[in-house]
Amino acid sequence: MSQNPPNLRPDLAPKPTLASDRRAGQPTIGMVSLGCPKALVDSERILTRLRAEGYGISPDYSGADAVIVNTCGFLDSAKAESLDAIGEALSENGRVIVTGCLGAEPEYITGAHPKVLAVTGPHQYEQVLDAVHAAVPPDPDPFIDLMPAAGVKLTPRHYSYLKISEGCNHKCKFCIIPDMRGRLQSRPHRAVMREAEKLVESGVRELLVISQDTSAYGTDWKDRDAKAPILDLARDLGSLGAWVRMHYVYPYPHVRELIPLMAEGGVLPYLDIPFQHAHPDTLKRMARPAAAARTLDEIAAWRDICPDITLRSTFIVGYPGETEDEFQTLLDWMDEAQLDRVGCFQYENVAGARSNALPDHVPDEVKQDRWDRFMQKAQAISEAKLAAKVGRTLRVIVDDVDEDAATCRTTADAPEIDGNLFIDEGFEALKPGDMVTVTVDEAGEYDLWGRLA
């Protein structure tokens, strides 16, 4: 049983879980998956393809014939983490194939680690498979190597990420994701639904919808019938009987049309929207829409339609040129918006980002001070909102059960990045994936405690 720390990075996927089921003589691959849930989905797709070719999946370095490191390149700190992971894999195993976002900069990787076997970029599945074949030739046994219907998953059996598109058409000055992953490319509606149906049939009880820009889904189709295809997709996903949670939703006007689906119960009343800041001048320097006041009106409209909606967002403090007045505007906006779940980054330069060239970079000590003050504000809001839930009866999903408690989540909590609800009495018969009704007894800053109703 563990409580979520207040500074948990909101871009990180849950730690992958792997089980070893190696047969005698089977070629086996290990996987280190870094970065966001979108990268985790890429890792699942690569492993599913390898598993279909007869490869075993190793949960440790020693049992692997080679190791794939799926990297993150969003921030310079993430790049450093990726290089460290590559170095560790080389030290522990020696045969390493690199893929993922940082793979878009192969010279950066080979300059630090010249002994890697191959480097491929993000979602270059065929190139990864070619590199694995060259390093560890396949040796399938068609009588033994059966493929699970839902493919290889790196998350617990009861929830799964569902990636609906690649790339992004925005040009935010602090972000290099479009340079690495390209422009928006939406998956066909039928392909997304087919994958979702297989996942639900295999026991998945929660679908976490992800992309770089979820609300833009389908707008890249030239022959589309609907102005906003995400609405039809959300409606169809909501018909499958699983929880459907929407992540990375850019606040376009048509997002308001998603809210009735949440009020009706088809989609979870939860929106993950990256607002980034609230001061119009800061937003302009970010090349983001500078309409924070209108955003407050939208939030009020969403809550009017669906009073129980949970709003999560991420923000950047210490962006180049951010003045104390601009930062105070952000704090005042937070007081008005009263967001339920909040993550925050201190700005840092990323190689290739246009924000690096902006004037008036904020000193590190000022960024740290503003992060502390922002998180103090966010924590107070979270604590008050959770306290208001004491005495309420909520539906929860069980994530884990140990000797101390059952760790659960409400509809307001995404895995790893939000809070938990703990049941520490009468929980022994529960198991991961169960959905139960709980009465809330106690609230903390980020987590709840309750008893079975």
What does the model show?
- There is one protein chain.
- The chain is an alpha/beta fold and 453 residues long.
- The strands form five sheets. Strands 2-1-3-4-5 form a five-stranded parallel sheet, sandwiched between helices. It has a five-stranded mixed barrel with strand order 14-15-16-18-17.
- Helix content is 32%, strand content 19%.
- It has helices at 37-52, 76-92, 106-112, 125-135, 177-181, 189-201, 229-238, 259-264, 280-286, 292-305, 324-337, 364-387; strands at residues 28-33, 56-58, 66-71, 96-100, 118-119, 159-163, 165-166, 185-186, 206-210, 243-246, 270-272, 310-317, 341-346, 393-401, 406-410, 421-423, 435-443, 448-452.
- It folds into three domains: 28-135, Rossmann fold (3-Layer(aba) Sandwich), CATH 3.40.50.12160; 159-387, pyruvate-formate lyase- activating enzyme (Alpha-Beta Horseshoe); 393-452, Beta Barrel (OB fold (Dihydrolipoamide Acetyltransferase, E2P)).
- The protein is globular.
- The protein has twelve helices and 18 strands.
- The model has no long low-confidence stretch (mean pLDDT 89).
- The chain starts with 27 loop residues before the first strand and ends with a strand.
- Helix 11 runs parallel beside helix 12.
- Its EC number is 2.8.4.4.
- Residues 1-24 are annotated as: Disordered.
